[in-house]
Amino acid sequence: MQVSIDTIIPALSITVSLAEKSVEKVVRENLNGVTIQDIVFDDYTYHSKRAAYIALELGNALQLDEDTYKDLYMCSLLHDIGYGNVLYKNYSVDEVIGIHCLEGSNIVKHIPKICYLSDAILYHHEHWDGNGVFQKKETEIPIISQILRMSDIIDSEYNTHAPYFEQKDKIKGLILDNVNMIFSQNIYEAFLKISSADEFWLNLENNRYLDLVINHLIPPIDIKLNMQELINIGEIFADMIDAKSEFTARHSRGIAELAYMVSKHIGYDDEKCLKMKLAGLFHDIGKLAIPSKILDKNGPLDGDEFSRIKSHAYFTRLILDSMDGIEEISNWASNHHEKLNGNGYPRGIDGDMLSEECRVMAVCDIYQALTEDRPYRKGMNKDMAFCILDTMVEDGSICKIAVENLKNALG
Question: Are 226 and 1 spatial neighbours (Cβ–Cβ below 8 Å)?
């Protein structure tokens, strides 16, 4: 099994929007400094996508070579990936910028075959004159980082709720005022080229249609990941969500280990066992969209909170379905809260639509959750957990055979 990395990177970038959605805030550094802005519940920021568009336009204006242009595209989508581990913590406004650069660089270091891009992510808030986060200056700053700094600033200065013609001249002036301080002359001249066309600003104004524009700019990227490399990607996703709550610190990895163990017991071939492990690593990635105050609530959830937390399986599917080549894995991971009697969520499908793999994943998830400490209770022992699982078998919620396979696999 091989999957192209050009379907995985956009999925990783979605996690940043989900993290911002869950805290209903965005962090931006514009030319007036760092700000934390409130967003409404259903407002997706599209920041990574707009920054990618701006970066690719700049890359074309700079006539980057083919390989650098490809690297620029990947970095532009991943540049804020470190926010996923930062937004939930109580860092000061000034700390957030440097820490998210470090976190993002560390994540990219662990992405197979593109780990060499970590420095470009690390230094994407540097200033040409050396007054940035890590005080790199001039040609010490990778060209990709320089472009990302410009694209980041343009998007942060741009007001998506105002017409472009009311603000483009102001933005041009702000950029000019910072030449040889934040931006090099070379990057500034590239900006002048792209910003002279109304089309550039219209594309920013109509960001909901930006996919149509970006598709004509995206370079072909022929990088394939094998199964073990996909497992590495899965561990990145798992660590993102498990880091969000101290009570689920190893939940995703625990599910992955259980799913792999049960799959071996059933007799699946090696590749399928690894696919099940990957589904376990991926299954809760949608929780990035759920506020930590709900995940960590010390007590029962009210109706609205439960509705919010149930949506995580929907967001898991949203992310995984954006990746070509893992359709089975997406289905197994996303259906882990469905029930045989149709009383599960988010689709409410019944046993006729739940494969053996989905049933195994659901049972592993319930067992793992029951045996883990939660804010409102201590984890159960094995016997107590299986007592509850057996009751759920009796009421038609989960699969008896899947429960028996889990029992036998655990010994």
Answer: yes
Q: What is the pLDDT of residues 126-170, one digit of tens each?
A: 999 999 999 999 999 999 999 999 999 999 899 888 999 999 999
Integer Cα distance of 152 and 75 in angstroms = 12
pLDDT bin (cut points 50, 70, 90) of residue 96 is confident
- Do 53 and 79 touch, CB atoms closer than 8 A? no
* AA letter at 69: Y
The total of other beta-carbon atoms located within 10 Å of residue 393's CB is 18
- 30 by DSSP, 3-state: which? strand
Q: Which range (10-14, 69-73, 191-195, 360-364) has the least confidence?
A: 10-14
| Global pTM value | 0.91
Which residue bears the tokens 């022929």? 222
> Token pair for residue 144?
């990709």
Q: How do residues 277-307 score in pLDDT, each as one tens digit?
A: 999 999 999 998 888 888 888 888 899 999 9
Show the domains of the chain with their CATH numbers.
3-214 (1.10.3210.10), 226-410 (1.10.3210.10)
Could you tell me which of 16, 25, 77 has the C-alpha nearest to residue 51? 77
How many residues are listed for the chain in this entry?
411
Q: Strand 25-30 vs strand 3-4: parallel, antiparallel, or unpaired? A: unpaired
Six-digit token string for 211: 């996919």
Alpha-carbon dihedral 127, 132, 135, 139, rounded to 10 degrees: -20
**Largest distance between two CA atoms of the chain:** 71
